[in-house]
Amino acid sequence: MPWVAAGSPHGYELALQWIDSPEEHIAAAGWATLRDIVALRPDAVLDIAALKSLLARVVKTIAAVDDRVRMMMNAFIISIGSYVAPLSAEATAAAKKIGTVIVDMHGRACKVPDAEAYIEKAKSKGTLGKKKKMVKC
């Protein structure tokens, strides 16, 4: 339930702990929580430098992590690029460096979104930087 953690005052700190977990589902929950936090919280309260560092971490490590974590890292890039205006260009550059994210969906019809295309869509719709009121799916 990353959306619950994202709404908590402790969500950011928890997410940073979770992304370092060797357990796939915990690490994925950490990245999903970060994804939701940047979609909810105003840019003024976000640690932009730390988020920029996390983007660099994703670029460096995404190819070596488990599928679920890879999907959430990709979603984190999309969220940064779509909801954090000061980092949109950096997120687009990260998406370009990473390229297509491949995840084994175990026969399901789900697809991994193209981060660069999603960020570009937010720009073209004029919603870049517009925050969500809630992130629960």
Please outline the helices and strands:
Layout: H1 2-6, H2 11-18, H3 24-40, H4 48-61, H5 67-83, H6 88-98, H7 115-125
Helix pairs in contact: 2-3, 3-5, 4-6, 5-6, 5-7, 6-7
Can you offer a commentary on this structure?
The chain has 137 residues and is an all-alpha fold. It has one domain (2-125). Helix content is 61%, strand content 0%. The protein is built from seven helices and no strands. The chain has helices at residues 2-6, 11-18, 24-40, 48-61, 67-83, 88-98, 115-125. α3 packs parallel to α5 and α5 runs parallel beside α7. The longest helix has 17 residues, at 24-40. The chain is globular. The relative contact order is 0.15. The mean pLDDT is 90.
Find the count of extended strands (DSSP E, 2+ residues). Answer: 0
What is the ordering of alpha helices and beta strands? HHHHHHH
Backbone structural class: mainly alpha
Radius of gyration of CA atoms, rounded to a whole number? 14 Å
Helicity level: 55-70%
Most strands sheet: none
Please state roughly what percent of the residues sit in beta strands, choosing from under 5%, 5-15%, 15-25%, 25-35%, 35-45% or over 45%: under 5%
- Which regions contain 5 or more consecutive residues with pLDDT less than 50? none
SS field, number of helical segments = 7
> Which geometry do the CA atoms define?
globular
What is the terminal-to-terminal distance?
10 Å
| Total domain modules | 1
Tell me, rounded to a whole number, the average pLDDT.
90
